[in-house]
Amino acid sequence: MRRAFAALLLLLAAACSSGAESPDSPDTLRILAGSEIKDLEPLLRRAAAEIGVRVKPAYTGTLDGAEQVASGRADGAADAIWFSSNRYLSLIDGALARLSTQTKVMVSPVVLGLKPAKAAELGWDKEAVSCADIAEAAKAGKFTFGMTNPASSNSGFSALVGVAAALSDADGALSAAQISAVTPKLKDFFSAQRLTAGSSGWLADAYGRDTSVDGMVNYESVLMGLREPVTLVYPSDGVVSADYPLTLLASASEEKKVLYGRLTAWLRTPAVQKEITTTTHRRPIVPGVALDPRFGSSQLIELPFPNQRDTADLLIATYLNQVRVRAHAMFVLDTSGSMRGDRLEALRQALVALTGADTSASGAFSRFSDRETVTMIPFNGTAGRPTAFTVPDRNPSPVLTQIREFAEQLDAGGGTAIYDSLKAAYDQPATPGHYTSIVLMTDGQNTNGSGYADFEAYYRALPEERRRTPTFVVLFGESDVEEMRAVAALTGGAVFDARSTSLSSAFKEIRGYQ
Fold first, then answer.
1. CA 256 → CA 26, 78, 164, distances in Å?
2. N or C: which terminus of the chain carries fewer CB neighbours within 10 A?
3. How confident is the model over 258-298, as pLDDT tens digits?
4. By the 8 A CB rule, do 115 and 214 touch?
5. Are β-strands 145-146 and 99-104 bridged in parallel, bridged antiparallel, or unpaired?
6. Strands (E), 285-423
7. What is the pTM of this model?
8. CA of 467: how far to CAs of 131, 428, 458, 459, in Å?
9. Helix, strand, or coil here: 303?
10. Is 109 helix (H, G, I), strand (E, B) or coil?
11. What's the CA gap between 150 and 167, in Å, rounded?
């Protein structure tokens, strides 16, 4: 009995030390959030001590989060949501009925940041600049920039909306006809884009690594927080700003409504507003809180946002399939013996979903895009023969069917040659004028061929242009976490964990970075 009691005490101590909390803890507010608010975590941790509200965030992408809320899947799993904007969510049929009180907390416009020397060279450090001026300079090859994927990140979506509205001279919300008419000008503007990403934070990191890119379209707050200063360019036509509405779900209990009210009131106190401005470089939302001089004195002109979901979706689809720089996505896929059975079936399903089988909004925008080249490199004890598919700009269905058939015919057997296979991907001829990225998926440890040290030496000896290709690693099964994280760090990629979710979810998330 004494031994059992001691064991119970140990279990309780372990639970307390791990910080584990019941999702129904009476002082915990569960928030489904965009990754943009991660920089507020230190501040939010103080809320527990100061106002008795523990904030428990769960992060997701903008479109995926909107779908979770609109479909009701967020009900019961979260008490509130906190994205940089609710504009897209509000366009989804039935979504507004899922929402209760919305409280705006801070503001950050999406603008262009350029290296000071480049801004001075273009004369944009002193003169007013319109989106048309920026598009003309982009078309002439006078500068390059990075931007997040509008289908994955609100900063990219806001930028796309702003550019389209400004270039179309829209007096009100964009229409389908205006999007069609402005597409050639959008191609000019985005011809200068050289970096893409699924989140504004990862884009900032990628920009910091790639010295060949002149600037970045991102939140004003992110640009102000860069280690190397940039010159901020505010288009004279106007901008689209994030207003970060912390929003209570209609399904939240009365107890959670009280916590929500307490938290939002605290976040809008002058002291906390000032701290948000100082630590995250966002503008205060509360009147009377002085604006820091670094934000300038110019009044921000807010551009109109689409007022129909079909129009917003058309704008995103136009960007992905017609406007953006073409992509070359390579998939290095483990088909060793340990992948037999359910694991191989999960891989097949994940690839098939990217051919259009996933009909959700986030799924539709993650499918292989028109004009994209997709190279499949399955491997076991050796690297398989690379098989390339190029999706045409018209009638993509036949090629998407070919990719689906390739995925469905994958078979498993043999050992695991991770690094020889990754080398095979980097040995593929570069595709001029394309974004190039690699996805590495393995469920085990390297058993054949060269090891990590050999790959690292090989990678570091590559020409600089080839080293700009990131590898996005998917953790699955018993993959070597330490080595996979090292591969991502070495190549400037990222790690996506499919061990607790699904391969389909991981692959769909990665599409925002390709």
1. 8, 10, 40
2. N
3. 999 999 999 999 999 999 999 999 999 999 898 888 888 77
4. yes
5. unpaired
6. 327-334, 373-379, 387-390
7. 0.90
8. 32, 13, 10, 7
9. coil
10. strand
11. 17
